[in-house]
Write a structure and sequence with these properties.
The chain is an all-alpha fold. It has one domain. The model has no long low-confidence stretch (mean pLDDT 89).
Length: 176
């Protein structure tokens, strides 16, 4: 394999990783919304709002804090998910790339044609190397945010959601 083939392989891999991160973010949005609406529906089913008035002030305050925490952590997760899905419009370092779509559009067809005509192997290799570096940077940032959302979901949202549902069910049976 020569250098250009290796760089093309990396460009293809990193593009795939970016696409996977975007797909994971879309799936996580679906999971979070399903979980949130499920908890809200369950709370409606158990008439928890009516029952909260009958409970001890401390218990109702704890339950209210759980609900606020669930809303807060969902908002935090959605923040990171939007960072994942937000298009990254980074350009290469010189702004004259024949690979970056932003540079190609910015410079226009004539400039692109002229640049391709005058590009030598060294310039192509440099442009491809910059593309690989920036795609790796983009993929890395996206996966850092996917990891943050996974942690929020597993360690915060799911336990709080289960706590709310179980307490709603308990209050329904205790208070009638």
């Amino acid at each position: 394999m020569d250098k250009k083939e290796i760089l093309l392989l990396n460009i293809s891999r990193f593009d795939h990783y970016i696409e996977l991160a975007n797909n994971k973010a879309s799936w996580l949005i679906s999971v979070l919304l399903t979980l949130l609406f499920g908890v809200i529906t369950f709370m409606g089913y158990t008439d928890i709002i009516k029952n909260l008035m009958k409970l001890n002030h401390i218990i109702s305050s704890i339950f209210s804090l759980l609900c606020l925490a669930l809303i807060f952590f969902n908002a935090q997760a959605f923040y990171f998910l939007t960072k994942i899905l937000q298009p990254n419009l980074k350009s290469n370092f010189s702004g004259n790339s024949i690979l970056f779509f932003g540079d190609v559009c910015k410079n226009g067809f004539t400039e692109l044609f002229n640049r391709i005509e005058t590009f030598d192997d060294k310039a192509i290799l440099k442009d491809m190397t910059e593309q690989v570096f920036l795609l790796a940077e983009i993929a890395s940032l996206k996966y850092e945010n996917v990891s943050k959302v996974n942690s929020i979901l597993i360690y915060k949202i799911i336990p709080i959601s289960l706590s709310i549902c179980i307490s709603s069910l308990i209050f329904k049976f205790i208070l009638g």
